[in-house]
Amino acid sequence: MASRGDYSYLVIILFAALLLLFVPVALSTIAEEQDSLAEGRRNNLFQDILKEEAVARLEELGKVTDADNYLERTFLSPASKGARDLLCSWMEDAGLRTWVDQMGNVHGRVEGKNSSAEALLIGSHLDTVVDAGIFDGSLGVVCAISALKALNVSGRSKNLKRPIEVIAFSDEEGVRFQTTFLGSAAIAGSLQSSVLQISDRSGVTLQDVLKLNSFEGTEESILQLKYDQQSVWGYIEVHIEQGPVLESLGLPLGVVKGIAGQTRLKVTVRGSQGHAGTVPMSMRKDPMAAAAELILLLENLCKNPDNFLSYDTNCQGFRGESLAGSLVCTVGEMSVWPGASNVTFTVDIRTMDNMAREAIIFELSKQMYRSCEQRSASCIIERKHDAEAVTCDPGLGSQLRTAAYSALKRVVGEIPDEVPFLMSGAGHDAMAMSHLSKVGMLFVRCRGGVSHSPMEYVLDDDVWFAGLAILEFLETNM
Fold first, then answer.
1. Cα–Cα distances in Å, from 385 out to 11, 170, 263, 301, 347?
2. Which one of 17, 157, 268, 286 is separated from 409 by 20 to 30 angstroms, measured CA to CA?
3. Block means of pLDDT (10 residues each) for the chain, length 478 residues?
4. 8 Å CB contact between 430 and 235
5. Where are the beta strands (DSSP E) in 241-377?
6. What is the pLDDT of residue 30?
C-alpha cells in the first residue's frame, strides 16, 4: 500500500510532466501573440508616422512662405529661416542630432553602432520656385526624417551599421541668385568662391546675404563645408517625378537610372524696327519673324535629329539611339525690347549623352546663324549654363528598387509590374552630390506630371509608400 509520501511524489511527477507538456506550447503562444502585437504596433506606427504625420508636415511646411497668396521660399529668405526651424524640430523629434551649416543647409544625424563608419546621406531641398507646390524638395526631406523616426521609436535605430545623415539643402532651384545647387554644391566641394559676389535682383550679393543671416560668408567658410569623400558611403534622394510616366504605368514609385545633362543658351536676334506700313516685305529685317523661325528650327532639330546629324561609328562618337527618349529642347523666357528691333529668348537642351548634347548645340548654332544671315539679321548665341549628365549607381539603384517593391508588397500585396527604371530630365541635388559620392534616386508619382505649380499633388498613400521604401532600404542595407 502506497504511503502519503509516495502519493505526493507521484503528484509532483505528474505536475512536472504537465508543465513539460504545456509550458512550451504556452510560451510559444505567448511569443506568437507578442510578435503579432509587435507587428500590429509596427504597422500602425508606420502609417501614423510615414503617412498621416508626414502628410501633415508637408502641408505645414507648405504654409511657410514669403508671399501672401502663394508659396515662395528662396535662399535665406525669412521663410527659409522658419522652414529651417521646423525641420530642426522634426529632426530632433526623430532622435537626430541637428545643426545648420554656413550655407544654411539643415543637418540631422544618427550615429548608429559605428560613428566612424562611412555615412549614408539622404537629402533634398527646402527652397522653392515662385508660386510653387508643396512636394518638390520637401517630400524627400520629410520622408527621410519620418523613416528615421520610425526606426527610432521602434528601437531599431541603434542597430544601424553606419551613420545616417539627413540634409535639407538651402538652395537647389537657383531662384534668388540664378545659380543652382548652392547648398549641395558646397557640401560636394564643387562650389566656387566667386559665387559670393553674385547679386540678386535687388543688388545684394550672396556674401552680403550670408552675413546678414549670421553666417561667415568667406572663401574659407565655403571650403570648410566640403565633406571628405572617405567619410561618405553614398547619397540617396526621394523626389516627385515631375513627369507623367509613373502615373501612366499605374505605379507609385520608380528608380532613377540617370539625370540628363543640361545646357542653357541665350539667343539674341537683332534686326531693324521698320515702320509697319512703309517698309516693303522684300526689304524688311524683322527680328521677331527670324526668332520664330529659329524656335521652329530648334523644335524640328530636336524632334528629328537624324535629319541633321551624322553619327560616328568609332569610339570617339556617339550613336543615334543615345538621343532616343532623352533629348528634350525647349524655349523658356522670351523678351522683345526695345520695340521690335531686339528679340531675346532662352533655350534649354537636355539629354543623357553629353557628347550628343554638344553635337546638338553645334548643329543648332550653325543652322541658326545661317537662318539669321538669310534674313539679314544678326544672331548672338551665349552659353549661360552647363551641367554634365549623371548616371546613378547601379548597385544603389538595385537596392532602392528592391526596397520600393518590398514596401509596396507590404501594403497592397502583389503588384502587377516591376518597379520601373526612369530617366530624370530635371536637375536634382543628386547631380551636385555625384561629385562627392555614388548617388541613387527614388521617384514618386505626381498627378499629371505637374510640378513647380500649386497644382502639384501626391497621393497620401504614395507619401507613405516612399517613406516605407526608405525604411526598407535602411533596414535591409544599413
1. 90, 20, 5, 21, 11
2. 157
3. 56 58 52 47 71 98 96 96 97 98 98 94 97 97 98 92 97 91 96 92 94 95 96 98 94 95 90 64 74 92 86 50 74 75 88 90 94 89 88 96 94 84 92 96 97 96 97 91
4. yes
5. 253-259, 261-270, 328-336, 342-351
6. 47
**Would you give the DSSP letter of residue 205?**
B
Q: Cell 508637408, residue? A: 58
β-bridge mates for residue 12, sequence order: none
- Calpha distance 405→419 (Å, rounded): 6
* C-alpha distances out from residue 140 to 152, 176, 280, 325, 382, Å: 19, 22, 58, 26, 34
pTM of the model: 0.81
The three grid cell numbers given for residue 212, joined into one nine-digit string:
546678414
Provide φ and ψ at 446, rounded to 5°: -130, 145
AA identity, residue 348:
D
Task: Report the alpha-carbon distance of residue 471 to residue 386 in Å, rounded.
Answer: 35
How, if at all, do strands 261-270 and 342-351 pair?
A: antiparallel
Q: What is the DSSP letter of 420?
A: P
* Separation of alpha carbons 157 and 146, rounded Å: 12
Q: What grid cell was written down for 33?
A: 501573440
